[in-house]
Amino acid sequence: MELTYVNANGKSITLKQSRPYFLQKINGTGDIHQTVNTFKAPDQDGAFYISSTLDMRNITLEGTVIADMPDQAYARRHGFLQIFSPKVGGTLLYRERQIACVVEEAGFTTSTRHRIPNFFVSLLCPSPFFETLEEIREELASWIPKFQFALELPEGGMEFGMRQPSQIITVDNIGDVSCGCEIVFHALGTVTNPELLNMDTGEYVRILTTMNAGDELRVYTHFAGKRVVSVDGSTVTNAFSLLDTGSAFFQLAAGINTLRYDASVNMELLEVSIYYRPQFLGV
Questions:
Q1: C-beta separation of 184 from 216 below 8 A
Q2: The overall pTM is greater than 0.85
């Protein structure tokens, strides 16, 4: 049993079943609660189901600070409280998953043995889902390299790269629920109206513009984080006005998603990538 907490200032602490921060118990990583919304008519037996939403996740940590001397115990307790500060958010890393959280409570119980104060931490996670530590990248339209070193050129020449042959790709979301994604359109030449279609739902993202070589457009479909931007080096510009009015910020459903890219002009000069983090109900 081991976990790491990293706060927004970049300071981190690892709790496990060894010195100096001995983790005894962790709760809230496997169970999850939801609020069920219903409607009840006069004289109705039971109720009509309307919808349900998952509540915030509450994770609690309990353990002991182990030290050789009282002064050392106080110093470690002070460092512990600095990292678990309620003034800054943080991320909990546990079993190859991560979850964003804020500190609701962090403190120590009174003990006559000053060298082993017991700690208690309560973390509130606004989003109840655990995510993968790294983003997954899927290439829908790209060039496949066909050479490697040591390089020897045959007399008849050789291909240095090959265009990915299909417009359609399947993306396997290994998470338990649907998740948002980042869609990146990159132009190798003049491209008009780049588009990505979710063939399972009919939803699409289309940008009404002409891109030149090197131009890049990014579409973010995450809940409460939807946006469209144009990227030129380190300069990021709002490009929401270029979005086709019929576009939808579609989510990647749990399981297989079938996607197809397109463009009105010069589709072959368009590169399309997707970045996403699968989400899980528990670990």
A1: yes
A2: no
152 and 267 co-located in one domain: yes
Structure tokens at 50: 């309307």
**In terms of residues, how long is the chain?**
283
Nearest to 246 by CA among 207, 194, 211, 220: 207
> Is it the case that residue 113 has pLDDT exceeding 60?
no
Whether 150 and 274 map to the same domain: the answer is: yes
Higher pLDDT, 61 or 163: 61
Only one residue has tokens 């109720």, namely: 47
Greatest Cα pair distance, the chain, in angstroms, is 88
Give the model's pLDDT for residue 11: 94
Q: How far apart (Å, rounded) are the C-alpha atoms in residues 242 and 192? A: 12
Helix (H, G, I), strand (E, B) or coil at 62: strand
| Residue 173 and residue 269 in one domain | yes
Within this chain, do residues 145 and 124 fall inside the same structural domain, yes or no? no
Q: What DSSP element (H or E) covers 71? A: helix 70-83
164-197 pLDDT per residue, tens: 556 888 999 999 999 999 999 999 999 999 999 9
| Model confidence at 200: pLDDT above 70 | yes
Considering the domain architecture, whether residues 155 and 97 belong to the same structural domain is answered as: no
Are residues 119 and 227 part of one domain? Answer: no
Planar angle of CA 263, 192, 145, nearest 5 degrees: 60
- By mean pLDDT, which of 88-92, 143-147, 178-182, 220-224 is the weakest? 143-147
- 163 and 273 part of one domain: yes
Of 82, 107, 128, the position where a domain reaches its end is 128
Using CA atoms, how far apart are residues 186 and 183, in angstroms rounded to an integer? 10
Residue 145 clears pLDDT 80, i.e. is over it: no
CA pair distance 119, 21, nearest whole angstrom: 9
What is the span of the domain harbouring residue 209? 136-280
